[in-house]
UniProtKB/TrEMBL annotation:
Keyword Transcription: yes
Molecular function GO labels: DNA binding; DNA-binding transcription factor activity
Keywords recorded for this protein, A-Z: DNA-binding, Transcription, Transcription regulation
Name this polypeptide is given: Helix-turn-helix domain-containing protein
SMART domains noted in UniProt: HTH_ARSR
Length: 103
């Protein structure tokens, strides 16, 4: 995980909102038939709808979060599902904690 990519990804309010929603997907998204929101993730179409943006912009935001390693994607049929990468997010927290202690 490259820190600069992570912080670029976190510099946008909508991308931060996506991460918040994916932290507890059952709270923010309706159940999806046959899909475990915690294990598989949330369908891109549901994220797009919740954002209130066009699919192109939402997909671009998700791609930035994925390149930064903050979310993972699972493809099932023609749909892509996203969930948080908790290990990577924890690493960001540890990095910040370490950097803040330097001062």
């Amino acid at each position: 995980m490259e820190q600069i990519e992570v912080f670029k990804a976190l510099s946008n309010e909508a991308r931060l909102q996506i991460l918040e929603w994916l932290k507890n997907p059952a709270v923010y998204f309706s159940p999806q038939e046959g899909i475990d929101l915690e294990e598989i993730g949330v369908c891109v179409s549901h994220i797009t709808e919740k954002l209130g943006m066009n699919q192109s912009t939402a997909s671009q935001y998700l791609a930035i979060l994925q390149r930064a390693g903050l979310i993972t994607a699972t493809r099932i049929g023609k749909w892509t599902y996203y969930r948080r990468n908790e290990d990577a997010i924890n690493q960001v927290g540890l990095f910040l904690k370490k950097e803040l202690k330097k001062d």
